Amino acid sequence: MNYRFDWAIVTSGKYFDWIVSGLYVTIKLSVVSIALSFLVGLVIAMMRMSHVRPVRWFAHGYLEFFRNTPLLVQIFFWYFGSYKILPQAVNDWMVRQDFEFAAAVIALTIYTSAFIAEDIRSGVRSIPKEQMEAARSAGFSYVRSMRYIILPQAVRLTIPPLINQFLNLMKNSSLAMTIGVAELMYQARQVESYTFKGFEAFSAATLVYLALSFLITGLMTLYDKKVLQPIKGH
Amino acid sequence: MVGGLDFGVVRDNLPYFFLGRYPKGPLGGVALTLYLAVVSLVLSFLGGLFLGLLSVSRNRLIKWGSTTVIQTIRGMPLLMVIFWMFFLLPALLGGGMTADWTIITALTLFTSAYMSEIVRAGILGIPKGQMEAAVSTGLSHKQAMTHIILPQALRNMIPSFVNQFVSMIKDTSLAFIVGVSELTHVATQMNNRTMLYPTEIFLFIAVIYFIMCFAFTELSRWLERRSAWRKSI
Question: Of chain B residues 10-39, which have a CB less than 8 A from chain A?
């Protein structure tokens, strides 16, 4: 093989800046989407446990449909196809935003929220039933017992799977390149096509992804050691 | 017409969605999606078993080496693995590999890392006493592993494998990026050609994927319930 390595292109200068800007977009996309996914996931989880049947069925359908469909297809649907089913006002608003970014956020949020909802539900189910009964007999309404007694405990148990979902989301955000969001993967390809130095460009992007992954995994270990173990110990 | 949507484009091209250009051309669409998923899953099972066994090895060097490989692959997006394969395999093998097999290699490598964690957890889930009992009856460590531990561990892993198959079906959609004409690729082509029906086309393939994945998700749940029931009696 007579390939000449040129690591300088990805360690400084213009192409280095591209990779860094890709990293910034990846982080922004992941952080915005995880925050929204948590909120939507919380609502869906509450709906899934509702006593009203149609509400429960809707949440169940939402979960099963979005978990069992490829994320890529969902991204394409929101990017290419959503205009026919969304109200005109929403379409207009989306076009005024960075449309690619908005479509990617919507797809990632809906996909991830379906997984998070299940994590939250199993967190809530792991809180003994007696707690709810005690709260209700102390005069709390159902919603207030959830809000003040059950959820604060359940969320603490849900944080490790949530961090895990964040890790998945960060990796999944690479699919946003297919609709032209200039995240890390997109920029790596960009550097490759401008320089023909694919090995260097992909190595740089791989290292950045690995660093992000290990950082998030480390966060999980830290949480487990500092927060969960002390609780379980007592 | 359903709610202002016109599914005529889907109805007129049904064979294309399911079989691609077959029989006049190569197999594509749903058939290729399932083919890629099944072949990659079988290979990933072997890869996962191999990596999983290495990761519970008593030899530290092998254990650390395999764990590093597994964690590195798990730390990367699948898309990255796919680009690496498309970039490296021609350089290493001097070309000659079809796009189908390159994507199968990437899916296999990626999923093997996840499978190996299932295998490892399955092996570690078998009580230690079993290995000790087997070794004390005169079996070697290797014999005990193949005849006593693995058969039990593998049975417990079946629901997880089925779940992995669901992920695999979803992951094959990424083959579109490198021009393998599976279902998602067929849909984007159809969308590029007709321009007017993106909503209908992507909704349709989403439903097709959902039917395939949901069937296997339910199968996995059923297997899990059944094995829990078996253990309870």
Answer: none
Tell me, yes or no, whether B3 lies in a domain.
no
Residue B47 lies inside a defined structural domain of this protein: yes
Q: B225 in a domain, yes or no? A: yes
Please name the residue of chain B whose CA is at the shortest distance from the CA of residue A179.
B177
Confidence of residue A234 (pLDDT cuts 50, 70, 90): low
Segments forming the whole domain that contains residue B79:
8-232
Give phi and psi for B13, each to the nearest 5.
-115, 20
Question: Is the pLDDT confidence value at A170 over 70?
Answer: yes
Express the helix, strand and coil content of chain B in percent, nearest 5 each.
Answer: 80, 0, 15
Can you give the pTM of this predicted structure?
0.92
Q: Is B203 on the interface with A (CB under 8 A)?
A: yes
Mean pLDDT of A211-225: 93
Residues from chain A that touch B72, judged by Cβ atoms under 8 A, are: 210
pLDDT tens per residue across span B143-183: 999 999 999 999 989 999 999 999 999 999 999 998 999 99
Contact B91 A3 (CB under 8 A): yes
pLDDT above 90: residue B62: yes
Distances (CA, A) of B151 to A11, A105, B119, B148, B227: 50, 44, 11, 6, 15
CA pair distance A218, A214, nearest whole angstrom: 6
Does A206 sit within 8 Å of B84, measured CB to CB?
yes
Structural domains in chain A plus CATH codes: 24-184 (1.10.3720.10)
CB of B178 within 8 A of CB of B103?
yes
What is the domain-level CATH number for residue B159?
1.10.3720.10
ipTM confidence: 0.92
Tell me the two tokens of residue B131: 């290995």
Within the 60-119 window of chain B, which residues sit less than 8 Å (CB to CB) from chain A?
72, 74-80, 83-84, 87, 91
Q: Is B183 a domain residue? A: yes
CA of A197 to nearest chain B CA: how many angstroms apart?
Answer: 11
- B76: which chain A residues are within 8 Å (Cβ-Cβ)? 171, 206, 209-210, 213
Q: Is residue A2 scored above 80 in pLDDT?
A: no
Q: Name the closest residue on chain A to residue B202, using Cα atoms.
A: A77
Domains identified in chain B, total number: 1
Torsion of CA B125, B128, B132, B137, to 10 degrees: -40
CA distance B83 to chain A (A): 8
Q: What mean pLDDT value characterizes chain A?
A: 92
pLDDT at B227: 85
